[in-house]
């Protein structure tokens, strides 16, 4: 299913506040109380989120009287995970980015939960696309998504108008992006297009361009994987950035940027376009104080031969050390906290009504559905009175992304490969005479070594 749609509470991580009414599968083992530790609890500084989490736990324990839930504010750390798993010092439910599941599955560090999930009455209605990155070659499922996204192009509608561009007709190709960026820079003096380049985010965004230009990031090689980015699509993408930076002068003067750097400049009205998702609307509005959120526009990923975009997100999984009653309890928690609330229109409507009263909320921002389109339309209808964003400003994103292939992030050593490609992006954006072919040759060698070291 290549569709995007309106999520009931996009931008809000904790979706289970009112889910207690639907239950999650009955009581735990009769031998006694089972205690599970779960990641995903907000820090004390997020008072509203912490309140939601505690209520979600209370609702769960009420319908599952044999299970006690202890929240953890720990976050995913690939450098310490293996040691914690070996030492038995890892939570029973962990939250990981979508770059990690395939590696965890292949190393047998997480547990298959297909049998437990199959007992949930709506299991067969889950979006296969949402489960694919969490499944092995035989179709065994190892987790539940929390958030899923597809990358697109975010743009400032006010800057488009100031530059003489039509904000209701955003760029659909990378030639059009280049032209629009130059026009914004020439007409307004602002940065036309800004690209992330540090903290592995440069390699991540180069992967997005690679897909849009028709490339691949890796390929199966014997019993493992090999890098595949050293090819024409990536070269063309880097040549585009090189021309925008040094010929058009449309990418501004600050090139070593994280995602937060980019969105902060965008929210201040200084950037015309960047690669992002509808979910960055809330970051611009809340985290960085965008004065007029109505200026936020987003369209599907522009294409130059790929007809594809990168998808990603956050997921919850169960470590391999968790078995028996704890495993059953962990899966019940996953269903209760992250699956049921996205299925029940009444729950979605109640949450949307509550969230719409918060000025910092973003109800109605599109994301990828957990279930089929027909069911998602029921959710959309249930929340329509509480949507507090301008849906027209997301329309081209929904329409365009529905036609694209959604391609997952690299399976093998993704973060390490992204870090290697950071240096390539940085060189192109800071050295007018950077040798793209030589940079990619070196990056391919380094990436192959990282993939081999990771056992992939």
Automatic annotation (TrEMBL):
Keyword field: Signal
Record PROSITE patterns: PROKAR_LIPOPROTEIN
Nucleotide-binding as UniProt keyword: no
InterPro entries (UniProt xref): Bact_solute-bd_prot1, SBP
Signal sequence region: 1-27
Name used for this protein in its record: ABC transporter substrate-binding protein
Native source organism of the sequence: Luethyella okanaganae
């Amino acid at each position: 299913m290549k569709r995007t749609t309106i999520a009931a509470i996009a931008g809000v991580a904790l979706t289970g506040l009112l889910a207690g009414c639907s239950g999650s599968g009955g009581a735990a083992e009769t031998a006694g109380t089972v205690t599970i530790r779960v990641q995903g609890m907000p820090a004390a500084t997020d008072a509203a989120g912490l309140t939601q989490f505690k209520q979600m736990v209370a609702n769960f324990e009420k319908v599952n009287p044999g299970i006690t839930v202890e929240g953890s504010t720990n976050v995913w750390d690939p450098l310490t995970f293996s040691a914690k798993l070996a030492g038995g010092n890892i939570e029973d439910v962990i939250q990981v980015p979508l770059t990690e599941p395939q590696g965890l599955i292949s190393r047998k560090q997480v547990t298959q939960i297909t049998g437990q999930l199959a007992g949930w009455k709506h299991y067969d209605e889950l979006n296969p696309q949402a489960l694919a990155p969490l499944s092995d070659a035989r179709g065994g499922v190892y987790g539940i998504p929390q958030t899923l996204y597809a990358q697109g192009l975010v743009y400032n509608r006010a800057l488009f108008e100031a530059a003489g561009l039509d904000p209701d007709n955003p760029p659909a190709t990378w030639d059009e992006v280049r032209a629009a960026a130059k026009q914004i820079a020439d007409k307004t003096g602002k940065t036309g297009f800004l690209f992330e380049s540090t903290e592995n985010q440069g390699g991540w965004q180069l992967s997005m361009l690679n897909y849009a230009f028709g490339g691949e990031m890796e390929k199966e090689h014997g019993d493992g994987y090999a890098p595949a980015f050293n090819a024409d699509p990536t070269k063309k993408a880097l040549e585009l950035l090189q021309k925008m930076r040094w010929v058009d002068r449309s990418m501004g003067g600050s090139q070593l940027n994280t995602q937060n750097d980019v969105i902060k400049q965008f929210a201040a009205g200084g950037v015309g376009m960047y690669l992002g998702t509808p979910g960055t609307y809330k970051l611009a509005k809340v985290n960085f104080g965008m004065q007029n959120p109505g200026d936020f526009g987003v369209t599907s990923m522009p294409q130059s031969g790929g007809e594809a975009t990168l998808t990603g997100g956050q997921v919850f999984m169960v470590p391999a050390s968790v078995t028996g009653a704890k495993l059953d309890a962990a899966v019940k928690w996953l269903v209760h906290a992250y699956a049921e609330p996205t299925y029940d229109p009444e729950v979605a409507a109640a949450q949307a009504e509550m969230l719409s009263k918060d000025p910092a909320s973003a109800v109605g921002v599109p994301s990828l559905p957990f279930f089929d389109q027909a069911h998602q339309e029921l959710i959309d209808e249930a929340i329509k009175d509480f949507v507090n964003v301008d849906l027209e400003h997301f329309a081209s994103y929904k329409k365009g992304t529905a036609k694209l292939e959604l391609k997952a992030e690299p399976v093998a050593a993704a973060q390490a490969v992204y870090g290697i490609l950071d240096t390539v992006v940085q060189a192109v954006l800071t050295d007018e005479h950077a040798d793209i072919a030589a940079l990619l040759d070196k990056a391919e060698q380094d990436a192959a070594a990282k993939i081999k070291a990771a056992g992939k």
